[in-house]
Design goal:
This protein is mainly alpha-helical. It is 82% helix and 0% strand. It is globular and about 45 Å long.
Length: 287
């Protein structure tokens, strides 16, 4: 495994820890509040690198930030209704959606990908029969998967035009700005009670902002400079396994046999969907 792949593996591991952390934060804060606050913390960390960025970097950062914001908010919202294990497996569908979106933009759709999509649908079916199903939580998490797939494809293009530090800084600052505006528009009694509700969730917000957002978006931008979106997506397929491990350690969450089977099918589907890309990369490297 090369350096850039190892960075993305580290990012995936840290992402796996965020599901139980988000689950705990959702006990006190709404999905929008969690997202806006973590972005504000991350923006403070990255502000020194954002001052001298070009107009083009701010434009690309705003586009990336808007798409990422949809992903983070919908994921946090969904975790109010479903378990962190279930959220992780549904979020992992972004790995399958990356080549699907690429096909819609002019790429090729193979039989292999269609088979992978069938496996993923079967896996979701098994998971949906579990008692933890929720239309609101599941649909919001699928929005998260779709928007993050779009983000991965956009990042693969934009990271070639800017340094990783510049792109991470601008998108994080824009995410904080967008999140703050949405939070202010929400207003009312919910906003007035925010300071009191924030206190028990503050350690989670700091972890999500400093480590899971600022540091990991920076490392992801570095990693995707030398790795295609398809191969990066294959590495990200390990996220639900890490999430299930940490949910078991920290929250005591257990998967039923049926849900575990469904989750295994989802992971198998996302790996199968990228297998030819990974093989092509290895053959190219061997030559």
């Amino acid at each position: 495994m090369n350096f850039h792949a190892a960075l993305l593996l580290l990012v995936t591991l840290v992402w796996g820890t965020t599901f139980p952390v988000l689950k705990n934060a959702a006990l006190h804060l709404s999905g929008l509040e969690v997202s806006a606050l973590r972005f504000l913390v991350a923006a403070v960390c990255m502000a020194p690198f954002a001052f001298r960025c070009s107009r083009a970097a701010w434009r690309d950062g705003a586009l990336l930030g808007a798409v990422a914001l949809i992903s983070y908010v919908s994921q946090a919202y969904g975790l109010q209704f479903i378990s962190s294990n279930r959220s992780a497996f549904l979020t992992s569908l972004n790995v399958l959606l990356v080549p699907l979106l690429a096909w819609l933009l002019g790429g090729k759709l193979s039989l292999q990908l269609l088979l992978a999509a069938g496996l993923a649908c079967a896996g979701i079916g098994f998971m949906s029969w579990e008692g933890g199903a929720s239309w609101s939580g599941d649909s919001a998490t699928l929005v998260c998967a779709l928007s993050y797939a779009a983000y991965v494809l956009m990042l693969a293009r934009m990271v070639q035009r800017h340094t990783a530090r510049t792109l991470a800084a601008t998108q994080i600052v824009m995410m904080a700005l967008f999140g703050t505006v949405l939070l202010a528009l929400e207003g009312g009694a919910q906003l007035a009670s925010l300071p009191a509700r924030l206190q028990p969730a503050l350690p989670a917000i700091l972890y999500l902002g400093v480590i899971a957002t600022a540091a990991m978006l920076f490392l992801q931008a570095i990693g995707q400079q030398r790795i295609s979106a398809a191969k990066a997506a294959l590495i990200f397929a390990l996220e639900p396994a890490f999430a299930a491990l940490f949910a078991w350690i920290w929250l005591g969450e257990l998967l039923s046999q049926r849900a575990a089977m469904g989750g295994a099918l989802v992971v198998l589907a996302v790996v199968l969907s990228e297998w030819k890309f990974a093989s092509a990369t290895r053959l190219s490297s061997a030559e």
